[in-house]
User: Which sequence fits this backbone?
């Protein structure tokens, strides 16, 4: 089962390597991982998308929590939450038809064309993983994808509760 | 004086002093010469020079296991630091508080593949509780204070502090301030068990008909032996200790049913398999205990008390988890038992003990020694028990001799039995014994070892000479790697691949070459007298080389992939 974990940790050198090391050391799966300092720059916030059964997930949460640099970890999957991922994709857009069609698909998915070349469009799209997957599949039918990059997901729980130090 | 300034190297020593460190175990080298210079110019802390950094970590480890204090290691960058890796892993697996100060090349050279540069923080990351890379003078006292705090609180473990050369040199000086009253916002280990869980646990205990107490290294580490004794006497329940927990309840206590696990007693493993409630205290359901987890104690309600939440339900699901310090939680359990005016169900208890005594009567921990036979290794351990009145510190290496020591030397006190249980590190025994001897120079300290293990750190005989550490080394010499050989006999149709030592040194001459006393014991009739002679020699290290029966196997032994109580009692005989 896919789970999204939100982790609040000290913004110290080596903190990231401890998390990544832990996952590989204990053979836990990482689907995606994103990290950046928070509004309080002594803290970093990490979102990890992972897969595992309940027993594995329990160990992941406990093992991450045990790391001295980690302040908090929470599994936001089962709660109401917002999940977003950023996609940048560069596609071939030469003919009039393909330029129009790519623009139209981008509009339908509420993406933006952020760069134009003689033969390419670069599109930016945010959403959850499903939406980005669907967008890429749709694009493939219309044109050739030259390059794509995804940020991995970030997530935050809905409601008044906040993950803070 | 507030105006006084100190170099980083001086700060290291002042910090250790402030933390009441008495001994550092280490080996000098380029990047830490300034620290050595600072140690040289003071006399509060004594430095013990080993012959190999691995031994420094095991010495610090042995010192810590015997005293409960944090063991301190100092090593230079590169190979000095990497030589510590096995010792750090050993301490990590057994949750031993240790601080390793590792030199590093100058900050400006880090990442350049400089001479004697190794990323020791990276190398040790999976086998430490935490690590610090100091990047300025001001980091040093703070990092060292935190390292000690982390190493010794919660679930203890090793902490590495990396010190680059440029922040140690006398040219850079700053004011010194250390705060030994450490708090960290990201680190708050649980102390008290949740009251609801305590009530649940006591309710389960109260309903139990076949209760077993299964206690481990956590009892020893948290100095909870007296509380454990009080608790098991209140419960009147049979109690088993893990390899790491031996001495937690005295080996001679009438409720003690022996060690459990792969080479544990039949009665301990049978009691576990047939229990309806298991009270697990400071244990981690290691695979050497459980055997096949699928078949593990199917009818038992498991109460698991541990300071580390990751140990709970990691391999075996706990029905009633309690996270907290063992000494605190055991007191809570006692209070709650008192509150409900607990008395064990006498009928059930009598039946349970009758059953256990039947298992005990099988005498699973036994061996056959005839007078004309080669000396049995078990017999040597029994003789050691007698000659030391059961009061010695026993440090072991890893292999058959380790299991024989665990089975045949009943430990009456915690911290008396010192071995590498989790990591299984050969070469641990001698340096660990040296660390114990430094802490307790007036006590008998034995290193029970084998002809394989002793050679993994035999160079430390030289350190023993330098610092006058008269430990008694007893080698159960079977001219082979006994445990490997045993597995080859049992699993590999007797093909002894690389388990036979064809060119052993003359250990007596070797001991003498290092300036010690060597005693060889060849036959059974001279065993007791010569051991008595060995222990009568004070102030000299005695190396006792006992030629034992090389064919002896350690029994009982788990049958692979079986349940916890499926055991070989002797060759071809199942329980």
Assistant:
């Amino acid at each position: 089962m896919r789970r999204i974990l939100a982790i609040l940790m000290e913004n110290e050198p080596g903190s990231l390597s401890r998390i990544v090391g832990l996952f590989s050391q204990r053979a836990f799966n990482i689907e995606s991982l994103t990290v950046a300092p928070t509004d309080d720059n002594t803290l970093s916030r990490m979102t990890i998308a992972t897969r595992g059964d309940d027993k594995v997930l329990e160990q992941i949460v406990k093992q991450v929590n045990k790391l001295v640099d980690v302040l908090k970890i929470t599994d936001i999957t089962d709660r109401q939450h917002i999940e977003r991922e950023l996609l940048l994709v560069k596609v071939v857009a030469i003919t009039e038809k393909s330029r129009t069609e790519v623009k139209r698909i981008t509009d339908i998915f509420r993406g933006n064309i952020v760069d134009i070349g003689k033969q390419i469009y670069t599109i930016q799209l945010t959403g959850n993983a499903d939406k980005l997957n669907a967008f890429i599949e749709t694009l493939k039918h219309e044109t050739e994808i030259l390059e794509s990059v995804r940020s991995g997901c970030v997530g935050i729980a809905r409601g008044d509760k906040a993950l803070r130090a | 004086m507030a105006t006084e300034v100190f170099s980083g190297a001086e700060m290291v020593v002042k910090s250790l002093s402030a933390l009441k460190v008495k001994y550092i175990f280490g080996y000098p080298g380029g990047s830490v010469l300034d620290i050595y210079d600072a140690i040289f110019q003071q006399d509060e802390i004594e430095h013990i020079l080993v012959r190999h950094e691995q031994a420094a970590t095991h010495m610090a480890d042995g010192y810590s296991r015997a005293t409960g204090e944090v063991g301190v290691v100092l090593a230079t960058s590169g190979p000095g630091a990497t030589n510590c890796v096995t010792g750090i892993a050993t301490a990590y697996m057994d949750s031993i508080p240790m601080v390793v100060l590792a030199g590093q090349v100058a900050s400006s050279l880090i990442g350049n593949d400089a001479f004697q540069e190794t990323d020791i923080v990276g190398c040790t990351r999976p086998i430490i509780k935490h690590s610090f890379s100091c990047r300025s003078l001001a980091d040093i006292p703070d990092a060292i204070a935190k390292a000690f705090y982390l190493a010794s609180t919660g679930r203890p473990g090793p902490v590495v502090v990396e010190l680059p050369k440029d922040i140690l040199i006398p040219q850079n000086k700053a004011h010194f301030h250390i705060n030994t009253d450490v708090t960290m916002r990201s680190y708050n280990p649980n102390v008290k068990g949740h009251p609801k869980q305590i009530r649940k646990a006591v309710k389960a205990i109260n309903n139990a008909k076949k209760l077993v107490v299964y206690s481990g290294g956590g009892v020893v580490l948290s100095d909870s032996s007296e509380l454990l004794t009080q608790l098991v006497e209140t419960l009147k329940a049979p109690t088993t200790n893990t390899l790491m927990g031996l001495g937690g309840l005295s080996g001679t206590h009438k409720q003690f049913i022996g060690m459990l696990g792969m080479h544990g007693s039949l009665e301990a493993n049978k009691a576990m398999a047939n229990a309806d409630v298991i009270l697990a205290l400071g244990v981690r359901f290691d695979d050497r205990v459980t055997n096949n987890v699928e078949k593990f104690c199917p009818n038992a309600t498991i109460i698991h008390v541990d300071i580390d939440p990751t140990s709970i339900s990691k391999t075996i699901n706990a029905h009633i988890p309690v996270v907290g310090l063992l000494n605190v939680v055991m007191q809570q359990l006692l209070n709650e038992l008192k509150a409900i005016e607990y008395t064990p169900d006498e009928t059930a208890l009598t039946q349970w003990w009758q059953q256990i005594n039947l298992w005990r009567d099988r005498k699973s921990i036994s061996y056959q020694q005839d007078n004309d036979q080669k000396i049995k290794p078990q017999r040597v351990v029994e003789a050691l028990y007698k000659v030391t009145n059961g009061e010695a510190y026993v440090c072991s290496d890893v292999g058959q001799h380790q299991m024989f020591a665990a089975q045949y030397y009943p430990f009456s006190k915690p911290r008396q039995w010192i071995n590498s249980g989790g990591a299984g590190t050969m070469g641990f025994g001698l340096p660990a014994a040296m660390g114990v001897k430094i802490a307790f120079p007036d006590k008998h300290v034995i290193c029970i070892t084998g002809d394989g293990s002793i050679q993994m750190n035999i160079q430390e005989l030289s350190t023993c000479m330098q610092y006058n550490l008269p430990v008694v080394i007893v080698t159960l010499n079977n001219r082979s790697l006994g445990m490997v050989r045993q597995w080859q006999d049992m699993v590999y149709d007797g093909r002894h691949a690389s388990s036979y030592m064809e060119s052993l040194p003359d250990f007596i001459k070797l001991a003498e070459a290092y300036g010690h006393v060597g005693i060889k014991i060849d036959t059974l009739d001279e065993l007791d007298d010569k051991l008595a002679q060995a222990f009568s020699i004070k102030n000299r290290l005695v190396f006792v080389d006992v030629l034992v029966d090389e064919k002896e196997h350690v029994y009982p032994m788990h049958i692979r992939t079986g349940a916890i109580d499926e055991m070989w009692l002797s060759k071809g005989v199942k329980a």
Remarks:
- The first strand of chain B starts at residue 6 and ends at 7.
- Chain B has 21 helices and 23 strands.
- Chain B touches chain A through 18 residues (CB under 8 Å).
- Residues 305 and 322 of chain B are 5 Å apart (CA to CA).
